[in-house]
């Protein structure tokens, strides 16, 4: 059987790119627990792909389940995109497309309600706000007040792109107040829960899984 | 960048109304074999803006996409499906630019990756 996650030894990173860490592993573990047998995503998109460890793992999960989808990954950092490209090549993954951009903006008009699997490992570490203007690797983790600066820019974009049958997986830590994030999404008729909890060095990881409320309830999926 | 991806990108400069589709200014085009999967093509067709794909394909060296696509072509026109597959998945814009149709703003494509980051005064 093919391994369904990326190999850390084949994953690229450097001083400008976030190394796969406990948060990345928790996110991939959560994705592996997803019920792939009843899920055939047409569009998968990771925002903030960093080293490429997560999107490469998703590509491998798709291939393991015999699924073919349009798979995209974006990052604001060109160093991250180069690392992702190297990671994909090292794993022999050819069909992930990369975009340099700020969160979901360039994709919103054409991906309106189209993304079936949306993945985001945001910069979630609480930092002083002046850390947010740095352009080095700090961008990969600096989250401003309560770690919410980038998360709160992303949340309103989710309802634009998430498909009626789609899922959004996002990394948070308790400092980000995950319950408050779920409440904000709920105001956009997006429901969700903490799907995986894990204690890591100095942080308590909470992986969120979210979906559109009405469509799924109407289908009786609960 | 494949034309499948090009088909999904829009210029998001503040105030731009007609930022779709990007015009392609190619400098280096590469061809890459992709697994031919007619079911994938049929599945994805409804999500595509066909005229945008057709125009982009012409610029990228695949002039054989028809103006209109019928259901029977999608089902069993092997020659059409092969051209469709080639245009959508096998032509890679490696170096060049995406040009906003309204403002002319150029977004560089380098090593196959389009840079859609905006300048401060465009947000």
TrEMBL record, chain A:
Residues 27-127 form the Methyltransferase small domain. It is found in: Nucleus. Keywords: Methyltransferase, Nucleus, S-adenosyl-L-methionine, Transferase. Pfam families: MTS. InterPro entries: DNA_methylase_N6_adenine_CS, Euk-Arch_PrmC-MTase, PrmC-related, SAM-dependent_MTases_sf, Small_mtfrase_dom. One of its GO terms (molecular function) is protein methyltransferase activity. GO terms for cellular component: eRF1 methyltransferase complex; nucleus. The keyword DNA-binding does not apply. GO terms for biological process: methylation. PANTHER family: METHYLTRANSFERASE N6AMT1. Belongs to the eukaryotic/archaeal PrmC-related family. NCBIfam families: hemK_rel_arch (TIGR00537). This is Methyltransferase small domain-containing protein.
TrEMBL record, chain B:
It holds the Pfam family Trm112p. InterPro entries: Trm112, Trm112-like. It comes from the Eukaryota. Coiled coil: none annotated. Belongs to the TRM112 family. PANTHER family: MULTIFUNCTIONAL METHYLTRANSFERASE SUBUNIT TRM112-LIKE PROTEIN, UPF0315 PROTEIN-RELATED. This is G3256 protein. It comes from Coccomyxa viridis. The gene is g3256.
């Amino acid at each position: 059987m093919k391994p369904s996650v990326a190999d850390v030894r084949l994953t690229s990173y450097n001083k400008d790119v976030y190394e796969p860490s406990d948060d990345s592993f928790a996110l991939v573990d959560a994705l592996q627990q997803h019920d792939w047998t009843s899920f055939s995503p047409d569009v998968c998109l990771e925002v903030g792909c960093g080293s490429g460890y997560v999107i490469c793992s998703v590509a491998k999960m798709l291939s393991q389940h015999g699924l073919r989808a349009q798979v995209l990954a974006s990052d604001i950092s060109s160093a991250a995109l180069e690392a992702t490209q190297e990671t994909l090549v090292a794993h022999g993954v050819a069909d992930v497309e990369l975009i340099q951009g700020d969160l979901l903006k360039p994709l919103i008009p054409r991906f309106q309600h189209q993304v079936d699997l949306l993945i985001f490992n945001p910069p979630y570490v609480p930092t002083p706000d002046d850390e947010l203007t740095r352009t080095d690797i700090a961008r990969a983790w600096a989250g401003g007040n309560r770690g919410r600066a980038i998360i709160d820019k992303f949340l309103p974009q989710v309802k634009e792109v998430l498909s009626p049958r789609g899922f959004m997986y996002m990394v948070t830590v308790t400092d980000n107040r995950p319950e408050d994030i779920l409440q904000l999404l709920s105001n956009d008729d997006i429901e969700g829960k903490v799907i995986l909890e894990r204690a890591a060095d100095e942080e308590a990881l909470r992986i969120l899984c979210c979906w559109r409320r009405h469509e799924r309830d109407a289908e009786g999926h609960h | 960048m494949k034309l499948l991806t090009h088909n999904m990108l829009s210029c998001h400069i503040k105030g731009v109304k007609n930022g779709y589709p990007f015009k392609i200014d190619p400098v280096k085009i590469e061809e890459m074999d992709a697994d031919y999967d007619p079911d994938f093509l049929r599945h994805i067709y409804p999500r595509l803006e066909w005229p945008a794909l057709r125009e982009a394909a012409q610029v990228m060296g695949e002039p054989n996409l028809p103006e209109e696509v019928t259901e029977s072509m999608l089902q069993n026109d092997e020659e059409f499906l092969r051209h469709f597959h080639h245009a959508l998945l096998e032509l890679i814009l490696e170096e060049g630019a995406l040009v906003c149709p309204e403002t002319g703003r150029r977004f560089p494509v380098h090593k196959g990756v389009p840079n859609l980051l905006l300048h401060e005064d465009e947000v």
